[in-house]
């Protein structure tokens, strides 16, 4: 297993990379309770991209874990979740934005995952039209039997990780969430580690 990249992503920062088929991406929640907003695309044709609704339908659950795929809108696996030591990730909450922070919390001009996504996507010639409903690793959004949902305290412990395997050449985009106005980061955003490896 050859390590291609091993990087700590500071809280509030973004990261993006193209992973050829078969490479793996390990995302480590170094201190626990840190939401990692995640988007992915077919690197060769980014109009094919992660589709939250289909991913949930195929998994038959909103809570993804090891064995589940992250599927594109063309019914194909972008990534497989190979390992998951946390067991709780969010598929329905989406990403934070300055606009939603102002609407929900009456605060202006906050840093956000949407702004991070836009900065990271720009390097690949992508923009606002390319942001779709995303996965939030290590974010806890429980849904009650009456349908009530909300962002709750994260369940990840320091060092929890997910390991993803690229099932095609994939563009992966991460925002290490800067949110301090709800519990998704324990009100204190912390660093994560990303490790890209090639098994060949
Ligand atoms: Zn965020």
Amount of beta strand: 25-35%
Small molecules bound in the structure, each named once: zinc ion
Strand order, sheet with most strands: 1-10-3-8-6-5
The average pLDDT score comes to 97
Largest sheet: 6 strands, antiparallel
| Terminal-residue CA separation | 7 Å
The number of helical elements comes to 3
Q: What class do helices, strands and sheet pairing give?
A: alpha+beta
The gyration radius over C-alpha positions equals 16 Å
Quick one: overall form? globular
The total of beta strands comes to 10
Helix and strand pattern: EEEEHEEHHEEEE
Helical fraction equals: 10-25%
Spans of at least 5 consecutive residues with low confidence:
none
Could you characterize the architecture of this molecule?
With 200 residues, the chain is an alpha+beta fold. 13% of the residues lie in helices and 31% in strands. The strands form 2 sheets. It has a 6-stranded antiparallel β-sheet with strand order 1-10-3-8-6-5. A 4-stranded antiparallel β-sheet has the order 2-9-4-7, with helices on one face. The structure holds zinc ion. Residues 37, 95-96, 112-113, 177, 179 line the site of zinc ion (ZN).
């Amino acid at each position: 297993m050859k390590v291609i990249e091993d990087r700590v992503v500071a809280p509030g920062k973004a990261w993006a990379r193209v992973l050829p088929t078969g490479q793996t991406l390990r995302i480590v929640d170094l201190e626990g309770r840190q939401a990692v907003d995640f988007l992915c695309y077919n690197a060769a044709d980014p109009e094919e991209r992660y589709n939250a609704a289909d991913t949930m339908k195929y998994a038959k659950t909103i809570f993804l874990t090891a064995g589940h795929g992250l599927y594109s809108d063309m019914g194909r696996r972008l990534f497989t979740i190979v390992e998951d030591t946390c067991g709780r990730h969010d598929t329905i909450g989406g990403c934070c934005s300055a606009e939603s922070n102002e609407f929900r919390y009456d605060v202006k001009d906050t840093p956000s995952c949407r702004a991070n996504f836009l900065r990271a996507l720009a390097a690949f010639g992508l923009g606002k039209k390319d942001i779709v409903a995303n996965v939030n690793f290590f974010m806890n959004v429980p849904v009650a039997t009456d349908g009530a949902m909300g962002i709750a305290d994260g369940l990840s412990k320091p060092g929890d990780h997910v390991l993803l395997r690229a099932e095609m050449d994939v563009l992966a985009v991460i925002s290490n969430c800067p949110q301090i106005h709800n519990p998704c980061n324990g009100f204190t955003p912390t660093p994560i580690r990303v490790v890209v490896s090639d098994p060949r």
